Amino acid sequence: MAAPTQISEIVTVTSRGYLPGTQVMLHSFLHHNPWFDGQITILHDDLLADDMATLRLGFPAITFVGPSTELTAAMDTLVADFPNLKDRQRRFLSLEAFHPDRIGRALFCDGDLLFRNDVSAILGANAQLIACGDRAQIAGAGRDPASMKERSACDPKTDSDSFNAGLMVIDESLRTEIVWNQLLGQLDPQAWQSVTSDHTDQTVFNRQFGNQVTLADPAYNYLVGHAGRVRSAIASPMSDAKVLHFNGPAKPWNFGAHLAATANDASFVKAMQHWFDAYIEFLSSYHFALGSPD
């Protein structure tokens, strides 16, 4: 089927340790959204030539982009003042999805997403930015816009709609020099003084777009890592989710985190089953792309 309002690009951030997630995310998206015929853009800072060759084999319409000099400088300045961000600095590469050199309407996807259905329905909204609520928004709490700290209840006078940045539909009107410079400004150490949550790029995007985001049904970004907290607030069960998001430390390809995640919420087991089913489908596709003999 054709998307109601087409997107020309899929953008994601990956690294050598995230490659299995990225491969499954892209394969599952293309499998369930065959209408997409645009470009896939990989934002990265550590992939080797062999890594890129492997991704090209599975996804021919792919291009690789490193961090711009402007973003690199902004990140380095921020980390110099906040060294606790050093091991999470790569997360800010997602800002490159808004670089003014990029054109068209884009879908930004975290590499720990699993697409289980067509998502074209959310593309029809006439909005500059479409995303799904984060844990605080879904649970009926709010976030302080300065600190990004979760409140016990939403204050409609001061709180905007806090959203999870793992899946965002980005209109071309936000990929401008003005917006780009504003996003870089959010990385100024002075602007970061008030942040008390552990969010990174999500802090930037919520501060920048919190008052203009259009929220989509949370089924399009079901937060597996917060399932126990949000389950009662979401109308449809996880089994009906169109996109599963393995937010938090427990990634399907990181086996050391599985036992703790399972002890915390049994639904993680079912979500893992969906991911590994998709992983097997990707491996089969990769095998045939290689032209390997049976």
Features:
alpha/beta; seven-stranded mixed β-sheet; 10 helices; three-stranded mixed β-sheet; 34% helix; Spore Coat Polysaccharide Biosynthesis Protein SpsA, Chain A; 294 residues; globular; 10 strands
Characterization of the model:
This protein is an alpha/beta fold and 294 residues long. It has ten helices and ten strands. The chain has a single domain (9-290), classed as Spore Coat Polysaccharide Biosynthesis Protein SpsA, Chain A, CATH 3.90.550. The protein is 34% helix and 15% strand. Strand 9, helix 8 (227-230) and strand 10 (243-245) form a beta-alpha-beta unit. It is globular. It starts with 8 loop residues before the first strand and ends with a helix. 40% of the residues are buried. The mean pLDDT is 91.
- The CATH superfamily appears as Spore Coat Polysaccharide Biosynthesis Protein SpsA, Chain A
Molecular shape = globular
Sheet-strand content, in percent, reads 5-15%
Question: Topology as H/E string?
Answer: EHEHEHEEEHEHHHEEHEHH
Radius of gyration: 18 Å
**Mean pLDDT score, rounded?**
91
The CATH architecture category equals Alpha-Beta Complex
Total beta strand runs: 10
The CATH topology assignment is Spore Coat Polysaccharide Biosynthesis Protein SpsA, Chain A
Give the low-confidence spans.
none
Distance N to C terminus: 33 Å
Which CATH class applies here? Alpha Beta
Number of DSSP helices? 10
Described by strand count, sense and barrel closure, the largest sheet is: 7 strands, mixed
Fraction of residues in helix = 25-40%
